[in-house]
């Protein structure tokens, strides 16, 4: 598979009264065409900021991005419009991401009006097709978002993201605000759409069970930095970073004969404002020593398995 998006040393900082908030700090990874990369981590670790930076809802502070081999780090005007047709986002909250003054049909047709020169008949036909694809009943086309339940609203958000037939879609926790039964429907819909149209997803979530279901590769993020990346099977079978192990231990199990031992993290969370060099997880890590005060970067610990930890070999007997 060829690389659709390559991210190198990408950073996004925000000014605050206390200094610079390192929301995303020196992140590098590759998204392959037609695949799903799962991005996981606790709330506030910078997942959504990274996703929004990739689709240029937020401009990066440093680093570079390429899309199909072309530099798309800084775009304006026509180049931005062209990129936006190929890169879309599905937002976390279907209750606030849709305009309450527009009908379902208007919401779906709006991107076509902005980017495509369709006649009224073509707009009607295309919006009707999209409603069929994402499973929205025709009778709801003149309904307003507040008249729909959460699952249908999210389907409208997905339809809006598909309107321009993009190649890359950021799924920013698209099921976290939905009931469990509806979550499964939306996840299966996204996977079916990928099989049919070949979309490339960055799937952002804090739920390890969800990311295991939908992703082919997983990136674990902690306070703005990648701490572990690998194929999903490798990561679940051989987690190497202490933070990843703690996340996996929190997955509920129904096996009463082999209950999991929950790893409880203690200690203060490092401030993202002007953080000191070194491992940002060190203040909560039981394995931390003096080496952890030194800068750390992702290194290959097992074939295709990269970890940012000074003590990874000792901890895991590699």
Explain the layout of strands and helices.
Blueprint lengths: L2 E14 L2 E14 L3 E5 L6 H8 L7 E6 L2 E2 L5 H10 E4 L13 H12 L4 H15 L15 H13 L5 E5 L7 H18 L2 E6 L2 H7 L2 E6 L2 E7 H6 L4 H8 L49 E4 L2 E3 L4 H5 L2
Parallel strand pairs: 3-8, 3-9, 6-7, 7-8
Antiparallel strand pairs: 1-2, 1-4, 4-5, 9-10, 10-12, 11-12
Helix pairs in contact: 3-4, 3-5, 4-5, 5-6
Structure description:
- The protein has 318 residues and is an alpha/beta fold.
- It has two domains: 1-100 and 156-222, P-loop containing nucleotide triphosphate hydrolases (Rossmann fold); 239-318, no CATH class.
- 32% of the residues lie in helices and 24% in strands.
- The chain has ten helices and twelve strands.
- The chain has helices at 47-54, 77-86, 104-115, 120-134, 150-162, 180-197, 208-214, 232-237, 242-249, 312-316, and strands at residues 3-16, 19-32, 36-40, 62-67, 70-71, 87-90, 168-172, 200-205, 217-222, 225-231, 299-302, 305-307.
- The strands form two sheets. An eight-stranded mixed beta sheet has the order 6-7-8-3-9-10-12-11, sandwiched between helices. It has a four-stranded antiparallel beta sheet with strand order 2-1-4-5.
- Helix 4 (120-134) packs across helix 5.
């Amino acid at each position: 598979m060829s690389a659709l998006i390559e991210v190198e040393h990408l950073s996004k900082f925000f000014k605050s009264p206390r200094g610079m908030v390192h929301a995303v700090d020196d992140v590098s990874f590759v998204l392959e065409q037609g695949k799903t990369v799962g991005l996981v981590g606790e709330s506030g670790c910078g997942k959504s900021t990274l996703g929004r930076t990739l689709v240029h809802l937020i401009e990066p502070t440093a680093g570079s991005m390429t899309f199909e081999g072309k530099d798309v780090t800084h775009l304006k005007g026509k180049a931005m419009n062209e990129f936006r047709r190929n890169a879309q986002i599905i937002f976390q909250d279907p209750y606030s991401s849709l305009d309450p003054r527009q009908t379902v049909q208007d919401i779906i047709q709006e991107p076509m009006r902005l980017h495509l020169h369709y006649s009224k008949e073509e707009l009607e036909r295309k919006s009707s097709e999209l409603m069929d694809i994402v499973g929205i009943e025709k009778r709801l086309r003149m309904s307003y978002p507040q008249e729909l339940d959460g699952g249908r609203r999210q389907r409208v958000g997905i339809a809006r993201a598909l309107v321009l037939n993009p190649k890359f879609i950021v799924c920013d926790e698209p099921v976290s605000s939905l009931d469990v039964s509806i979550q499964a429907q939306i996840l299966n819909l996204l996977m079916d759409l990928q099989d049919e149209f070949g979309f490339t997803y960055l799937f952002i979530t804090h739920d390890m069970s969800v990311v295991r279901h939908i992703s082919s590769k997983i990136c674990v993020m902690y306070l703005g930095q990648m701490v572990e990346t690998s194929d999903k099977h490798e990561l679940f079978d051989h987690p190497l970073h202490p933070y990843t192990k703690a996340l996996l231990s929190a997955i509920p199990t129904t096996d009463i004969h082999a209950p999991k031992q929950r790893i409880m993290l203690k200690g203060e969370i490092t401030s993202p404002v002007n953080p000191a060099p070194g491992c940002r997880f060190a203040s909560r890590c039981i394995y931390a020593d003096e080496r952890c005060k030194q800068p750390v970067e992702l290194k290959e610990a097992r074939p295709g398995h990269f970890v940012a930890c000074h003590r990874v070999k000792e901890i895991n007997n590699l």
